[in-house]
Specification:
By secondary structure, the protein is of the alpha/beta class. Helix content is 25%, strand content 26%. It contains eight helices and 24 strands. The chain has helices at residues 2-13, 38-41, 50-56, 113-124, 143-158, 179-193, 275-292, 350-363; strands at residues 21-24, 28-30, 47-49, 60-63, 66-70, 75-78, 83-85, 89-91, 97-98, 105-106, 130-134, 164-168, 195-198, 202-207, 210-214, 218-221, 224-227, 230-231, 261-263, 305-310, 317-322, 331-334, 365-371, 379-385. α1 runs parallel beside α7. The protein is globular and about 65 Å long. Residues 365-371 and 378-392 have low confidence and may be disordered.
Amino acid sequence: MAALEAALTLREHAPAHVNVTLVAPGQDYVDRASSVHQPFSRREAEHLPLAVLARDMGANLVSGALERVVPDERQIVLRDGRRLGYDELIVATGAPRAPAYEHALTFRGSRDAEAMHGLVEDIEDGYVDSVAFVVPPRVAWSLPLYELALMTARRAYDTQAPTRFLLITPEPAPFALFGSEASRHVSGLLEAAGVEVRAATTAEVPSCGMLVLHPGGKVLACERVVALPTVAGPAIPGLPSDVDGFVPVDAHGAVRGTPHVHAVGDATNFPIKQGGLACQQADAAGRSVAAAAGADIEPQPFRPVLRAQLRTGGVPYFMRADLSGRTGDPVESGSQTLWWPPAKIAGRRLAPFLAAHRRRQAEGIRRRFVMTPADGEGTERTVMSLDSLRPL
């Protein structure tokens, strides 16, 4: 998503100055934020063809995965050995995610949706009496686990399944980043759903069905454990990295000590890994590259404003926090939309771009043709192909 946001920023600010090439290892853009619904609806996360998106934003698409960067030659090397040259490079590879616990169900999105669905079915059938949702230490974005806990508890209530739920997080309170009001509201949602919260707590999972809580070392029996993955830096060959493998960048996304290279999103050393923030980093990097290419634009540094839409299984809850410290009222929350369009990923350009793409998709493929009766007078008709429609 950060790569797409950067391409859209360049299209807006420097269309006459740059030719954009988008390098991607897959064929589709996958909406990972929607994957928490898959265990409950069996509906796949949204897939949008990258070829269509790249065409619509005026970018060239190259299928391939980044292997390494050769800054001295201004080239990247792909895993299949191909080399591509660049004048300016924006790296948006994301970062690998790995299980934090051997004896837990790790939810990384679509790849783990089937396993999570199996747990939901076992709860519905009365085979599971207790589930713990665990945020591992150093996890930078915990919202998906809260959504899983709330939606699983709601499903258990709807099916009258007698299951006990526990949520364990090292945060001092649920969503403490968003202030006391949001924390109280989310805590109330969890309590109403029957989810017990242990905040300021970390957990070990030494074996199936057992938790050890810290501080204190208290041992709890819990039949199933669901956890978020840990995120490691990609340690991209040719680029500098910190001790954890993340790429160090400045406020404009420029990679330190590496001219003509920017990095954005989860691959960087910014501590919070979240899609909306990745798009904001991409905006800053795109403006910087546009200015370097000769566009009449002033680069603007990355100003982190965290936006979150918590899906509860009912009315979503919106939260906003300015992390830059530049405003007098840095926190907002409530059931009313705090940004527009109210997308899960609040990219300034990506969200409206994808919304417009979905509208065109929903409208279907319209074909115009002329019917000519015997008198020769043409009548225009519009036909919609129902086969072209896809579920939203």
